[in-house]
Amino acid sequence: METWSFDTLLLVFGGGIVGAAFGGLWSVIMCAGLVVLGSAIVFAGGPDYLLMQVALGPVFGPHVGGFAAGLAAAAYAAGVRNNHPGGSAKDILSPLIGTSWDVMVMGGIFSLAGHALLQLVVLIPVLNKADGVAVAVIVSSMVSRLLFFREAPWGSRESIKKIGYFNTDNYAISWAPWQAAPSRHTVVGLGMGLIAGALALGLKAALAPLAATGAVSPAAAFVIPYIMGWVLAILSLIPLNLATGTVQQVPVAHAMAIFGSLTALHTGSIVLAGIAGIIGALIQELLARMFYNHGSTHIDPPAFAILIGTMVLNLIF
Fold first, then answer.
1. Arithmetic mean of pLDDT, 135-139
2. What is d(CA 286, CA 280) in angstroms, rounded to the nearest whole number?
3. Which residues contact 164 (CB under 8 A, 6 or more apart)?
4. Is residue 2 part of a domain?
């Protein structure tokens, strides 16, 4: 697909509308499902179009319709139109189809912005070492918070003054409070880092011979091992939308998975992948306290952790 062609931009816009209509969480779950399907096509000897251009590219990648559009639309619905079905821009579970046409169009507009941001990120030294999709997601989220709530990235001054910047009021304002305690998220980080690292190395070994013969593109041969742990973690979030109470409280571990998979791909070590998963868990919670807990909108802690972690790992290795 040509980056700036009319057809591409039309697809980007359409993906953003769909992403907003379904809401942020359902959209990224759909994105993960498309990654699975696209990867299966690659393994079957088919092209990587569905994987690279649809699931992770301009059509429905997380930086466009596959997540970021839903976040921006939620912020607009809550902060401007006052018609968010859940009443809060932090509610990324609720579909927004029942709001108004302009909320979904706003998703399309921010999808176009996310597409443009990704093209800019790859041109900026050092920053282009980070996962560009994660960078676009975070920048888009910060912009929507500023535009629709007139709020800084760190959130409400009143909340920070009352509770303390890094405090959570006994987890009352925490993102994913069921895993906010270090004793919980670090253990999950270890496990997810190990699993994602093993997946990455196994898939790399399976794809390397195919890439060597040209049966699989170099891009797909890297992306599938890198992303599959993330996919597993994203698909495991389905109970967040379908369940209630304690059944809903599944681990949110896709940043830990990326830390583990990328570390394994760089080093070949499962042990280091597990350690990286722990570090990813700690960074994710720290960023939640810095940019999510006191805010009125959703700035995604896992995406922010992926931004930082991938940049550091790629600079080191």
1. 99
2. 10
3. none
4. no
